Amino acid sequence: MPHVHPQHTTLRDPSKLFYQTEYNRRLIIASYWVILIAAIPIWWHTTSIQRLSLPTSRVHSQAGKQLRFPVEITLENIRDVSLSAALQQLIHERIGGSGLEVRVRNQDNAHSVESYTVSAHNDIAFASQRHLMYPVRSATLPILADTLSTLLVPLTNSHHVAHYSPRYRLAFTLLNEDAAAGQAITSWDISGAISHHLLPILDSLSALHNFTIESQVQYHAPLAFSPISLLDGAGFGLTPEDLTVFINSAEWTLSSSVSNDPVLHFIAFIPSASRRPLQILNSQGRPSSSYTFLLPQWGGIVVYNPPPELQESTHFPPSALNSVFSTFATQLLTLLGVADVPAGVKTDSSVLTGWQLDALLRRRALENSAEAQETLRSIVKIVDQIENMPVGQDVRGDVQNSLTALDQMYTSASTSLNDTLHQSADALSLASRAFFNPGMLALLYFPAEHKYAVYMPLFASAVIPLIATAAREIRAWRRQRREVQGVQQ
Amino acid sequence: MLHWKCRLLWSLYFTLAGFSHSFSSETFEEELTVQTLRDGKVATRFSFSTVLGGATPRNPHNLSIEDDSQHYTLFPLTLGQILREYAVTELHLTLNAGKWNYDRWGYPDEEGVGTGAELWAWIGDGAVATVDERWRDLRNALAGLFCASLGSLDELRTTAPALTFTPGALPDWPLPHAIRHASLPSEHVCTENLTPFLKLLPCKSLSGIASLLNSHRLFDADWHGMGLHVSWLPDDGVQVRLTFQAVTDPLRASSNKRDWSFASIFDRSIERACPVAASSRIVVALPVNAAYSINPQPSSDEQGYATFNVAEQAKPLDVSMQWPANFEHSKSIRLATYSVTPFAESPLSIRRTLKGSTQDHGKLSVFIQNDATTTTEVAYLETMPWIVQFYLHTLTVSIDNIVRDDLLKNISYTPPVPHSRAMMFQAVLVLPARSTVHLTIDITKAFLRYTEHPPDAQRGWDLPPAVLVPLGGLARQRIYTPTLLVDLATPDFSMPYNVIIFTCTLIAFIFGSVFNYLTRKFVVLYKESN
Question: Keywords in UniProt for this one (chain A) (predicted)?
Answer without folding.
Answer: Endoplasmic reticulum, Glycoprotein, GPI-anchor biosynthesis, Membrane, Transmembrane, Transmembrane helix
